[in-house]
Please model this.
Amino acid sequence: MNPFIQKTHRAETEEKALLERLDRNNLPQHVAIIMDGNGRWAAQRHLPRIAGHRRGIRSVREIITFAREIGIKALTLYAFSNENWNRPAKEITQLMILLEHYLNKELDTMMKNGIRLRAVGQIDRLQDSVSRLIHAVEEKTKENNKMTLVLALSYGGRTEIIDAVKKVYKDLQTEKLSLKDLDEPHFSNYLYTQDIPDPDLMIRTSGEIRVSNFLLWQVAYTELYFTKTLWPDFRKKDFLLALHDYQGRERRFGGVTGEEND
Model:
């Protein structure tokens, strides 16, 4: 048998076995992913960085489709950080073109599959054509309820918290909010993610072991999973491995188990 065919067959067999063992009653409702490694994937193949980003779109499509199929309610993808504005202008332009192309191409699929788009971050920092398109897709998909796809764009966790504090201060000044009523749930309502539950599972690809200013408030009790797989190579099997790892953990949220409480 051709080695490539043999490798593909083995991967498909492993994926099928993982899917069969998956506990559909213990899935994370919200998964957040730091899609890291596009540049390294391209560099390993002596290709321009944008080639890695283009290849990464394949992973985006596959993971969104699969997440929706198995019943995950929300999927957040860290697509463009505040720090990414420091990249070369040419790369930023290429990334924005890719984003526009993706949204235009996938809108029909989102509508067909009941996927709602939400964008979080300083969206108005993006070029006008991109921000207008994002708002248009959000509006067109707002009634979809099978899954929420959240794109973190021009996003930074610290900036999000500062922006929330500014809104809190304004409401305190205008007496829309009383200081005695300000608690964690109230503060969460001032975040970009006000209508989205906190992630149950956060995945980071490429082997880096840090959260990189991503959802700093929201991941306080999120299960973290790190894989060395570069994002362009991340497929259903890799996602299933992360889900199985999640299902093998005991979430306590600062409490104790029944046995420890005896």
